[in-house]
Amino acid sequence: MSGHSKWSTIKRKKGAADAKRGKLFARLIKAIEAAAREGGADPDANPTLATMVQKAKDASVPKDNIQRALDRASGKEGGGAQWETVFYEGYAPGGVAVYVECLTDNRNRAAADVRAAFTKHGGSLAEPGAVNYLFTRTGVLTVPADGTSEDDLLVAGLEAGIEDVTADDEQFTITCAPEDVNGLRKALESAGITVSSSDSTMLPSVNVPITDEDSAKKVLRIIDALEDADDVQEIYANYDIADDLLEAVA
């Protein structure tokens, strides 16, 4: 699991993210609406939309909210903005690369909010192309470790696109090509394997180790500040902070 995913998971377990539940739902609904406008409102014919809908379901977004987003995108229901995807690149303290994906209807607002998050917390914006080459679009699925073995996963999903499987005490993390996410999830679930989450994300090719608490706090302050920006949809960063250190700073 990427460092940012671990950080989000730890905060959620500690209850620190409860107040941001509404913001998370809003981001997921925005992603559904944007994907539907781009590739059509039928998840069966739009793999990106199918991934976003499943991600929203995994996060317990109400079905009615999901359906309204699809209706707005298809024109059945009025309202909804014309969302535009914009990427920003920068560095957190310690040379950590940060790649920020925004979904916005106002580029100037998005740029100002992202710039403020970096500069107020000791980071810096970078020119386009400075860090994006460090990240690769990858499909990632997680499966609870209880009652499931790596062999079970490989038997069920190898033909559906599994590329790699890693494990920790709580779960398996499976990677695949982005276009295989939905098919692989269906293959695993058809074999009776519970899938906790599935997504198309950006994974770093090189990680920057962060080993002391002060440096970890500085990096995570930028991540949290970016998460607070309304237009920020996803944050990808290549920090590597040990689990016990993440727990300590949480």
Average pLDDT for all residues: 89
Whole-number count of domains: 3
Tell me the distance between the termini.
17 Å
- In total, the number of strands is 10
Note the main attributes of this structure:
Alpha-Beta Plaits, 250 residues, 10 strands, 3 domains, alpha+beta, 4-stranded antiparallel sheet, Arc Repressor Mutant, subunit A
Account of the 3D structure:
This protein is α+β, with helices and mostly antiparallel strands. It folds into three domains: 3-74, Orthogonal Bundle (Arc Repressor Mutant, subunit A), CATH 1.10.10; 84-133 and 205-249, YebC, transcriptional regulation domain (Alpha-Beta Plaits); 135-204, YebC, transcriptional regulation domain (Alpha-Beta Plaits), CATH 3.30.70.980. It is built from nine helices and ten strands. It has helices at residues 3-13, 21-39, 47-58, 63-74, 107-119, 150-157, 181-190, 213-227, 243-249, and strands at 84-92, 96-104, 124-126, 135-144, 164-167, 171-176, 197-204, 208-210, 232-237, 239-241. A four-stranded antiparallel beta sheet has the order 3-1-2-9. A four-stranded antiparallel beta sheet has the order 5-6-4-7. α5 (107-119) packs antiparallel against α8. The chain is globular, with a radius of gyration of 18 Å. 38% of the residues are buried. The mean pLDDT is 89.
